[in-house]
Amino acid sequence: MGSVEVTIPVIDISGYLSGDEESKKKVADEIREACETQGFLQVVGHSVSIDLQERYLAAVAEFFNLPLEEKEKVALTKSQCHRGYERIGGQKLDELDDQATPDQKEGFSIRRDRPLGRFLEGPNQWPEALPHFKTISMEYYEAVHQLSKTMFRLVALSLGLPEDHFDYFASDPNGICLCRAHHYPPTPKDAAGRTRGVGSHTDFGALTLLLQDSVGGLEVLHKPTGTWHPVIPIKGAYVVNIGDLMQIWTNNRYKSTMHRVISPYSEKDRYSCAFFNDGALDAVVECIPTCLKPGEQPLYAPLKVEDHCIKRYKQSYGAAGTELATAIAV
Ligand SMILES: O=C(O)CCC(=O)C(=O)O
Ligand SMILES: [Fe+2]
User: Fold this and answer.
1) Does this complex have an ipTM over 0.95?
2) Is residue 51 in some structural domain?
């Protein structure tokens, strides 16, 4: 695939979690290097157990296996706060091609459960046909949110900032984190490599943690050559990538990289789950002064998370995203 080799670094963070100062520095250095080059890395030696990941992915597979009418009972289109089931083609995430076909994936989104409030704030929807799905999903949500907070701490250290610099954002109890499970149906040989699981996009938030099974298909763009490179699945690992907000904070020092899911030939279904930490609606993201080199100016105006999310939801959900944004504006 092209003549350049792009290897996504695998970083073991157990030394950081042990609290040993030397190891903390080493891990922070590795994170910096990965964020400055490709903006993607894989994390192992973390706090989420393989047992929990496996139980969760098994429950996700059970959910997507339900008859369509059961899944439609908890459809995202019935939610006023963007939670629940998205059928195949519900979202179109392609920033490179206007004519692209909608994404060939189903999704199921959850966030923190709360009363209906502002944009994206409200209750989750749960399938009655699968009573244990709520318990395991929320257990997984809490565990991956915890790891997300850890990753923000590591990113802070990697930028030479106090370790708790992003805590207000990553741990805000009013945060609008999104945990979205995906199902990509098997791809027949004649469609392999051409089926768009997810179109090319960057992630809107600050930092994404993705759990993927062993099927593969996630690819990242190497911008200088325009070539795509696979993120090889590693059992138990999280693919961590920089999102748009972190790119703004760091004035492009940390890269929010285009990625996509191309479906390889497979008789197996692919399952993945992405956790996006977008902070709270009122958070304002702007260039961190120490990320400016002498003589440099901020490349982006300060951005309120709420405005940014409304814009990006409209872009990727079309009419449905617009309805959602209008609903909250009144
Ligand atoms: O399922 C995957 O591997 C990636 C999904 C993704 O990039 C996204 O949901 O933003
Ligand atoms: Fe993504």
Assistant:
1) yes
2) yes
- Residue pair 179/147 in contact by the 8 Å Cβ criterion: no
The residue segments making up the domain with residue 135 are 10-318
Residue of 213, 259, 260 to test ligand 1 pocket, by largest number of atoms within 8 Å of CB = 259
Pick from 110, 76, 106, 80: which is nearest to 178 by CA?
Answer: 110
Helix and strand numbers, DSSP H then E, in the chain: 8, 14
pLDDT tens across 261-304, in order?
A: 987 778 899 999 999 999 989 999 999 999 999 999 999 999 99
Read off the pTM: 0.93
Give the ligand 1 atom nearest the CA of 231.
Answer: 3
- Pick the ligand that lies closest to the CA of residue 243: 2
Amino acid at 272: S
What are the tokens at 289? 């002064």
Q: Quick one: CA dihedral 16, 167, 298, 244, positive or negative?
A: positive
Ligand nearest to the CA of 198: 1
Domain contains 3: no
Number of domains forming the structure of the chain:
1
Ligand 1 site residues (CB inside 6 A) read 182, 198, 203, 210, 212, 218, 259, 261, 272, 274
Collapsed DSSP state (helix, strand, coil) of residue 290: helix
Q: What is the CATH number of the domain that holds 86?
A: 2.60.120.330
Per residue in 44-91, pLDDT tens? 999 999 999 999 999 999 999 999 999 999 999 999 999 999 998 766
